[in-house]
Amino acid sequence: MQKQSLVLSAPSDALKKALLRLNGHNFGAYFSKEIDRVVKDAFKACKKDFFDTYEPSDDEVPLCALALSNYALSEIGFGCNISLVLCYKDIRGYNARDFAIALEESLSTISSNFKVHILEISRLFNTLRHDIELKSKFCTMRYICASKRLYKEAKAELTRVKEQGKDEFIRYHLNELKPYDDVLLLSQKPDLKSGYGGFFDYERALMLLNLEGSAKENALKFISEKEYSEFVLASEFLSSCMSALRISGGNDSIESAFLEPASRILCIKEKRELDVRVLLVAKALTSMQRIAVYSRYLLRANFASFFKSKLSFAKLRGAKASGDFYLIDNTIFTPLHAKPKTLISVLKSVNALSDEPFKFHIESILYFKHISVAKYDSSELLAFKKIFYRRYSFWILKALLDGEQLFGLIKPMEHTRHLAQFDNYKFSVDEYSLMCIYHLENIQDSNVGRLYDELSAENKALLKIVALMHEVAKSQGKTSATHGLQGANIFRSYASKLELSQTSTALGVTLIKNHSLMNKAIKGEINAQNTLNLISHIGSVEALKMLYILTYSIVNATNDGFYSSTMASTLRELYEGALAGFKSTSDKS
């Protein structure tokens, strides 16, 4: 049993080799089989101890060992609690309860991770019927060993349990997965197990989808085989990633100290000169985003009756906003079975929506995702450009990002999806860049807000495009000192596709090339007295004003609380000093 203990409780070489051999895939299934073997061996040892030479067959022992929760899904990771139930039948001649207790004690000596429930079959229904959390564990159950006959009885009892208070049970778990009217942004330090889009979201979705028939069959009513495969593969990667992090000394969260060893275990290789730590975080965030979206969409679709609107038919018909979009309670809904025709038609419908800060419900995100585009043409790009002229662009751009269309429309940015950036950044490059637009549209500093309101409609739109693209050169193998210049060149090329004017293009190039100047200055990297350096780089009062506003959005998007009153005062002082320098230069000329 000592060898088995090491396999389950310590980061052994055998586990590392298994992860390497599997190339980071299906480790949960491998590890579940290893645990099954341990449980089966422990059962055989107990049976030998209890019956000696009079051993009955496995099926004649009135006990069965059943896996629960993520162990039942064969997606358990190293270091996780191993939930199982020893279900027995109280028959006088067998002392089945004593057998179950002995088996539990045997398993606990092998690993403290075993969390064993001992239940008599006739008490299973009453034990589970009113305990939602325990009932949830049992809803995903898998046979391991011992009596198959008793397992059939346990399945029949579990069917009764599932029917008891079924609607209340479903509502409880649907409520746990809120919100459905927004896909949340993902922190770069997520909890891979219980965080938003974590493994528990996948497990909860599978559990509910399995309540009536096969989870896969219910899922395929609303998504494709390819999408379902993405959903499952995302869960497999998270399971393997959690195991690799634990084996490396970490836990279920992304901590920089354990990323490199975990990356080696998962066989992640450098790509485009990107650090393996960056690639690991990107894969983890991609997996979590897919789980977050698919789990909520599938439950929304399969349990549509639990989400019925209280609006009358007439009011629902009146809520139709544009195309397939309906605006209800400040949220854009799309009928579940609506099929988008073309991207240009969807973009035109989006531009016809009222200019309000509405969110997009989860089925609208899948509606965007299901738009099939062979090639993005100029008409689509020009329709896309109109979004930046709206007072509120953020929620539309976010829906396009979550629906995997945004970076088809901004091709130069596609490599930034979930691209990790360290040094105090809360979000990955893509979501951080998007948050810059959010802060432009929700300015809290009255001085910055006044300057933004003074901008022309064209310059407001330009500033949003610049905010979205100012880090476009990240991951291109450029240093922080040169990525502004590289980004400016990328922007110049993309600006021609959007048919921006030469004036706007030149202004955008200046802003992206110098987007970090003011931020560095207020950190003390550039002497605040040397405002002439800032003036020489910026070249005009309008560019200075826009850089000031852009810097405000960049600082706020970096992390919560970065934009303090002290920083606001320093930034304003730097802006006013540079502005005075421009006026002085103008007076002399």
Explain how this protein is built:
By secondary structure, this protein is of the alpha/beta class. Helix content is 58%, strand content 6%. It has helices spanning 2-9, 13-21, 27-51, 69-72, 96-110, 124-128, 132-139, 148-163, 166-176, 199-209, 215-219, 225-247, 256-265, 276-302, 313-318, 343-351, 362-369, 378-385, 394-402, 406-409, 429-441, 446-454, 457-469, 483-497, 502-513, 517-522, 531-538, 541-558, 565-588, and strands spanning 63-68, 82-88, 114-120, 141-146, 320-322, 325-328, 331-333, 359-360. A 4-stranded mixed beta sheet has the order 3-2-1-4, with helices on both faces. Strands 5-6-7-8 form a 4-stranded mixed beta sheet. Strand 5 and strand 6 (325-328) form a beta hairpin. It is elongated. The model is unreliable at 1-6 (pLDDT under 50).
Structure, briefly:
The protein has 589 residues and is an alpha/beta fold. 58% of the residues lie in helices and 6% in strands.
Name a few traits of the molecule.
589 residues, alpha/beta, Beta Polymerase, domain 2, 3 domains, four-stranded mixed β-sheet, 29 helices, 8 strands, elongated, disordered N terminus
Work out the helix count: 29
Rough outline:
elongated
Rg, rounded, reads 29 Å
Widest beta sheet: strand line-up: 3-2-1-4
How many beta strands in the DSSP annotation? 8
Looking at how many chains there are and whether they match, the oligomeric state comes to single chain
Query: What is the terminal separation in angstroms?
Result: 88 Å
How large a portion of the residues is in β-strands, by DSSP E? 5-15%
Q: Catalogue the unreliable spans.
A: 1-6
Q: How many individual domains?
A: 3
Tell me the helix content: 55-70%
The computed structural class is alpha/beta
